[in-house]
Amino acid sequence: MEVRQDLKYTQEHEWIRVDGKKAVIGISEFAQDQLGDIVFVELPEVGSQVDQGSPFGVVESVKTVSDLYAPAGGKVISANKDLETNPEMINNAPYEGGWIVEIELSNEKDLESLLDADAYNEQCKNEME
Amino acid sequence: MAQETSSSLKTTPLIDIHKEYRGKLVPFAGWKMPIQFQGVIKEHQCVRDGVGIFDVSHMGEIEIQGPSAKSLIQKLITNDIDSIQDNQALYTLMCLENGGVVDDLLVHRFSEDDYFLCVNAANTEKDLQWILKNSGSFDATIRNNSQDTSQLALQGKHSEALLQKLCDASLSEIRYYHFKKAKIHNFTGIIARTGYTGEDGFEIYLDGGDAEIVLRAILEVGKEFNLQPIGLGARDTLRMEMGYALYGNEINEESKPLEAGLGWVIKLDKQDFIGQAALRKQKDMGSSRKLIGVRLLDRGVPRPHYRVLKNGTLIGELTSGTFSPSLNTGIGLCYVSPEYAEPGTKLEVEIRKLSVPAEVVKLPFIPTRVKKD
User: Fold this and answer.
1) What one-character-per-residue DSSP string does B309-368 give?
2) What is the interface pTM, i.e. ipTM, of the complex?
């Protein structure tokens, strides 16, 4: 299960890729594998505010509904509209074409509480039993 | 009810194979069962387009034998046991005195005095107690064979060609809802042309001790047909597309089976059976609700218990709901007043406070392809 070294992670399996003041958010390879076939994604409005640790959207697989939690707070500057027609992109390329939103960080300090790749990898292993 | 902790869960003799095929194992009705292998959508399409195999060994098997076996079954079930001959199966309900549903099941007749029932896993013990309780004056032996019996469901259009390669009996002679005792890979089993997917196929009953060898042989022969193991996730999406009732969702001890569209398995004019008077009364009074198929007209996935609205007014809640891989849209089942039951009626399904447009569609959602004569 791929865990990318250049990303930070939440315990709820979102990843965040920071580039200056902007950051892209998605869910991990582990998360998409646990959910199974993703068939629906509910995206936040561009321009809306997301708060760290709060739900900002929903992914649904055939079997389950799962909230998306913001790894960091900020304003949504872009949402991946392709997911509306091709939600399976999250299964196929969770770190690339399956990205979910891009935000403008409101507080870079939010990033300090996130997991690095090694810590996140450890968590996934524990969850696998 | 036993807690579903992993230590107390029962396992089928096929669990090693599930692990080899990387099945995701979850607690289901007291059993550790594979919910998916490659993914629900792929598995679903595998059954619709070719052939797939399910381990359904969690299902219960109850044997009823003896001089009064037939009259006992006739008293217990709503369908007419006299309508089948040897080597035939019958879909039926078992009802309470008040017409509520104890279980839905298949009755298989070996002979006048020898039958076995295939019942829902979660209901096996309850059914057994119900049958025993009502068997007092009957000369019949009732035995729960569930622990020693494994069941495989081979479903999809290539089922017959595949299974024929391992089987000494001529499968083309087994008609829909008929069965035969035969050898599969040299192990004796019962092969019934039944299923829960809407596709042609077989349900195969085996001694638990033989099941692993037989399944391995089926998977090996199945390679040329691209046979895949299928989990319970796809079993649910497949049955949903057919509008088949699931015990615990559409029917339970409180539901009225006539409202569920199951009138065709309730033979009010046969001999006395448990629930007859109540069901006759329900029929005479007419149904106040009807089970309908609902199809979303916009994106979203309906789930059980989601509210169904008509112009903003609550008219029911979904008993089942899922994403239909064949239709690429959300589908659900729901009891509503007959005035909303006409196909084409526009409704809304409430998904996280949002009203998603939907319409009533005729069941099944997609045409069945079972091998009817």
Assistant:
1) EETTEEEEEEEEEEEETTTTEEEEEEEE-GGG-STT-EEEEEETTEEEEEEEEPSSSS--
2) 0.89
Chain A residues in contact with B352 by the CB 8 A cut-off are 42, 58
Rounded Cα–Cα distance for residues B130 and B97 (Å): 12
**Number of Cβ pairs closer than 8 Å across A and B?**
38
Which CATH topology does B6-56+148-242 take?
Gyrase A; domain 2 (3.30.1360)
The shortest C-alpha distance from A20 to chain B (Å) reads 35
Residue from A33, A35, A39, A40 to probe the interface with B (highest B Cβ count within 10 Å) = A39
The pLDDT value recorded for residue B358 is 98
Nearest CA-CA partner of B324 in A113, A121, A62:
A62
Looking at chain B, the domain(s) classified CATH 2.40.30.110 span 288-361
Record the pTM. Answer: 0.94
pLDDT in tens, B222-258: 999 999 999 999 999 999 999 999 999 999 999 999 9
Mean pLDDT to the nearest integer, B248-271: 97
Structural contact between residues B234 and B49, judged by C-beta atoms closer than 8 angstroms: no
Per-residue model confidence as pLDDT tens digits over B299-339: 999 999 999 999 999 999 999 999 999 999 999 999 999 99
Euclidean distance between CA atoms B110 and B108, whole angstroms: 7
Q: Is B299 left (phi over 0), alpha (psi -120 to 50) or beta?
A: beta
**Contacts (Cβ under 8 Å, ≥6 apart) of A107:** A52, A72, A73, A74
Chain A residues near residue B6 by CB distance under 8 angstroms: none
Domain range B288-361, CATH class: mainly beta
B30-69 core/surface letters (b: 16 or more CB in 10 A; e: else)? bbbbbbbbbbbbbbbbbbbebbbbbbbbbbbbbbbbbebb
Picking from B270, B271, B205, B199, the residue whose alpha carbon sits closest to that of residue B230 is B199
The answer to whether the beta carbons of residues B315 and B336 sit under 8 Å apart is yes
> Cβ distance B103 to B126 under 8 Å?
yes
Enumerate the CATH 3.30.1360.120 domain ranges in chain B, comma separated: 6-56+148-242
